[in-house]
């Protein structure tokens, strides 16, 4: 009886030990993981010369901080030279048109001393054009009010920092164009009004040779010539103003395109500087590298036989050896071979082996990580990964056990965890 009880007791004890053993297969632990930061290499986008001194290696930079500036010393200024040449030619044409206008005015005045315009249809035509220009003038006046209101609103937004200077300049240019249109219409209306005043009390014509059609034709030709000269002059003046605006815009574009200023896209630490002030660089030339200290990762080395235990998204904990803090994370990437050497965004210490498979563990967004230590490329940590249910973990461990001989490659029988000193 005592023997049966002893056997039963031993059986119960064995089952308990087995359950305890199985329950301890609850994950995978690496005591030799490393915590690193991904780096961003800032490259030039154009040929030029470095005009600003980069922050020193190890300097902390905030998001949006200026890192380095490059000035384009090969910028194409042909468009500006073309506009300036057109402006000079237009000025010559403008002076010629002004002389032509004065000649036409003299001819018309000489003709008016000999004749009086009596053509009623011409008066009616002038009246019609006058009313038409007034309607156009009213429309242009309303448009100018809208443009002025836009400029006023733009100034308020710019003072508050809600509108860039280029957009405000665009509002001002539109208002200037609308003002020119109104000025042109006012000039045309004033011209038509003068013609109406001239014709208002004149309904006879001097007939030196008795040919009324001759005087009518001559009057029309001179008036048309004068109108052509005036419109030509106004068009040239408008073109001159347009060229002035285009030259200003081109100068602004050249200033904007002549210099590129690289800003930090995140808070981090300068890891390397590849250029200095005065260096000549070409497009794609590396200028400096900064480390993203806000989003570190942990690299866990595993044997290829143990890769089947892991899956993307598995929860993990990271315990840096130089602090008592514990951070949460998850499996982000699994490498079935050596860490990809072309991933130059990882700042990996030289003493870390590139052999074997790697598990990349990302920190959770709510894990507050100390920026002063995040970018230390030699920081070590203990990383534990929850690899799934008990049965699947046992199967994974058994698979990883095949071919294992000694040393750090042995499975920790007591805890059921894999201890890797990467």
Please tell me about this protein's structure.
This protein has helices at 2-23, 78-112, 120-159, 165-200, 212-258, 371-374, 390-401, and strands at residues 28-36, 39-43, 48-50, 60-61, 66-71, 259-263, 268-273, 280-281, 286-292, 297-302, 315-320, 327-335, 357-363, 379-385, 419-420. The protein is an alpha+beta fold and 422 residues long. The strands form three sheets. Strands 1-10-13-12-11-14 form a six-stranded antiparallel β-barrel. It folds into three domains: 25-39 and 293-420, Elongation Factor Tu (Ef-tu), domain 3 (Beta Barrel), CATH 2.40.30; 43-74 and 261-290, OB fold (Dihydrolipoamide Acetyltransferase, E2P) (Beta Barrel); 78-256, no CATH class. The radius of gyration is 42 Å and the shape is elongated.
């Amino acid at each position: 009886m005592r023997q049966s009880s002893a056997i039963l007791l031993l059986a119960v004890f064995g089952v308990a030990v087995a359950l305890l053993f199985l329950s301890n297969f609850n994950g995978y632990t690496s005591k030799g993981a490393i915590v690193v930061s991904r780096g961003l290499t800032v490259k030039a986008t154009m040929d030029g010369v470095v005009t600003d001194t980069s922050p020193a290696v190890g300097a902390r930079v905030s998001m949006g901080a200026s890192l380095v500036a490059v000035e384009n010393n090969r910028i194409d200024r042909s468009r500006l030279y073309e506009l300036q040449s057109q402006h000079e030619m237009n000025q010559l044409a403008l002076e010629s048109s002004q002389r032509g206008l004065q000649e036409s005015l003299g001819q018309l005045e000489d003709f008016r001393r000999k004749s009086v315009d009596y053509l009623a249809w011409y008066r009616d035509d002038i009246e019609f054009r006058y009313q038409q220009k007034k309607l156009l003038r009213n429309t242009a006046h309303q448009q100018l009010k809208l443009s002025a209101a836009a400029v006023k609103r733009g100034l308020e937004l710019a003072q508050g920092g809600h509108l860039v200077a280029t957009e405000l300049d665009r509002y001002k240019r539109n208002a200037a164009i609308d003002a020119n249109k109104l000025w042109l219409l006012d000039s045309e209306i004033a011209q038509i009004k003068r013609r109406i005043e001239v014709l208002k009390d004149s309904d006879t014509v001097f007939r030196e040779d008795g040919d009324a059609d001759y005087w009518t034709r001559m009057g029309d030709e001179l008036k048309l010539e004068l109108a052509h000269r005036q419109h030509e002059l106004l068009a040239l003046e408008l073109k001159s103003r347009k060229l002035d605006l285009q030259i200003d815009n081109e100068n602004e574009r050249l200033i904007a395109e002549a210099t590129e200023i690289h800003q930090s896209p995140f808070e981090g630490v300068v890891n390397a500087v590849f250029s200095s002030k005065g260096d000549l660089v070409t497009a794609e030339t590396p200028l400096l590298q900064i480390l993203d200290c806000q989003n570190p990762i942990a690299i866990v080395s595993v044997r290829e036989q143990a890769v089947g235990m892991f899956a993307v998204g598995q929860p993990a904990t990271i315990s840096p050896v130089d602090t008592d803090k514990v951070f949460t994370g998850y499996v982000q990437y699994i490498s079935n071979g050596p860490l990809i050497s072309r991933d130059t965004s990882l700042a990996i210490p030289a003493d870390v082996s590139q052999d074997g498979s790697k598990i990349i563990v990302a920190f959770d967004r709510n894990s507050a990580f100390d920026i002063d230590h995040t970018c230390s490329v030699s920081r070590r940590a203990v990383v534990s990964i929850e690899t799934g249910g008990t049965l699947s973990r046992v199967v994974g461990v058994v698979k990883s056990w095949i071919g294992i001989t000694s040393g750090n490659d042995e499975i920790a029988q007591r805890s059921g965890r894999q201890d890797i000193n990467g």
